[in-house]
Write a structure and sequence with these properties.
By secondary structure, this protein is α/β, with parallel strands linked by helices. It is 27% helix and 25% strand.
Length: 354
């Protein structure tokens, strides 16, 4: 009887030969803190050999990578060099955790890499977890409408702004991953919705496809004047994704007891972090109109994500919520997708498919 040589048996049994210990992976390392708009030479793509898995760890092959404004905002907080973090979805190709066998899809925060090791002993809602069953909806939604951006829109609007039927809601960054969802959720709640975005094309998408009552290109209009016409009875809720002067103007037009959810400040992310960006003061309007202004991070709602997920899935499946994605293809194009998103090239969630 012919016996297969040992080297053939190795090839037939990756587990026995532990070949995955020798798997080479690539990742983006940040080697320079960003100054202004991020540059390609702020990063280095490095190839490295993945170590053997420890108990509780899984090895994933990346399928989708998320690029988001907060990656720019938090850049200066980390000591160089560091692996570029972000949400991503990967499929388990080797597992040392009995709850997550090969084939399981994992959402994690291991960032811009083509393969990576995830410690599932540190499972955490909205950060490291098994991808839920989306009832045949696209996998990429797990880092978009059915992930952190969706949770941000849902809880930021409903728990902080608390819109009431018939009220007027204003959203900035309205065509982005979060803003495009906020406006639609506000419409579901029976509100009048006004969005500000950065191009005439996006204006048409917001009004014609996503159901906003009004949308405006903030670069070409007088913010105060268009609000007087589009919101003749004032603004009740403001979901702020951008900060800056536009936010000062919108807050000035708000009603007594208005509510503001401060989600982001993308207008200032490329500014010098050592200098304070300037905008008109809003304290007289906040105090005089008793406006409630609250900043938030979606992580505070992580333990309640299970409440929102089935609701959002139902909205999508019933056609009440339309999902927009801007898809870039290829590991080598992650940086381009990132700076494109910061420049406003995307409508909806910017993602990279591997």
């Amino acid at each position: 009887m012919y016996v297969l040589p040992d080297y053939v048996l190795c090839l037939l049994s990756l587990k026995e030969c532990n070949l995955k210990e020798m798997l080479k992976a690539r990742k983006y390392i940040v080697k320079k803190h960003f100054e202004g708009v991020p540059k390609r030479d702020d990063f280095e793509i490095v190839e490295f050999v993945l170590p053997a898995l420890k108990l509780g760890e899984v090895l994933v092959k990346t399928e989708w990578i998320s690029v988001d404004p907060y990656l720019r905002a938090r850049n200066a907080m980390y000591r160089l060099p560091f692996d570029q973090f972000s949400s991503q979805i990967g499929q388990v190709i080797e597992s040392h955790h009995n709850k997550y066998p090969v084939g399981t899809k994992i959402v994690s925060h291991i960032g811009w890499c083509d393969y990576g090791i995830v410690d599932m002993n540190e499972e955490e809602p909205l950060r490291t977890y098994k991808l839920p069953d989306f009832e045949a909806l696209p996998t990429s939604y797990g880092i978009g409408v059915l992930g952190r951006p969706g949770a941000t829109a849902y809880f930021g609007l409903l728990d902080i702004c608390k819109p009431k039927f018939g009220e007027t809601v204003v959203v900035t960054g309205a065509a982005g991953a979060v803003g495009s969802l906020v406006g639609q959720i506000a419409k579901i709640q029976g509100c009048r919705v006004i969005g500000f975005t950065g191009s005439d094309k996006k204006v048409r998408i917001l009004e014609d496809e996503l159901g906003f009552d009004f949308a405006f290109n903030y670069k070409t209009v007088d913010i105060s004047e268009v609000l007087k016409n589009a919101a003749p009875y004032g603004v009740d809720c403001y979901f702020d994704n951008v900060g800056g002067e536009i936010s000062s103007v919108i807050i000035k037009e708000m009603n007594t007891f208005g509510r503001v959810a401060c989600c982001g400040s993308i207008s200032s992310y490329n500014d010098n972090p050592d200098k304070m960006s300037k905008a008109s003061i809003v304290q007289p309007f906040i105090a005089g109109k008793q406006i409630q202004l609250e900043g938030f991070n979606v992580s505070r709602f992580a333990d309640r994500w299970h409440e929102a997920l089935p609701v959002i899935v139902n909205w999508i499946k019933t056609g009440q919520l339309k999902v927009k994605e801007h898809v870039t293809i290829g590991f080598d194009n992650v940086f381009g997708a990132f700076v494109g998103m910061l420049a406003g090239e995307n409508v909806g969630k910017a993602v990279v498919r591997m």
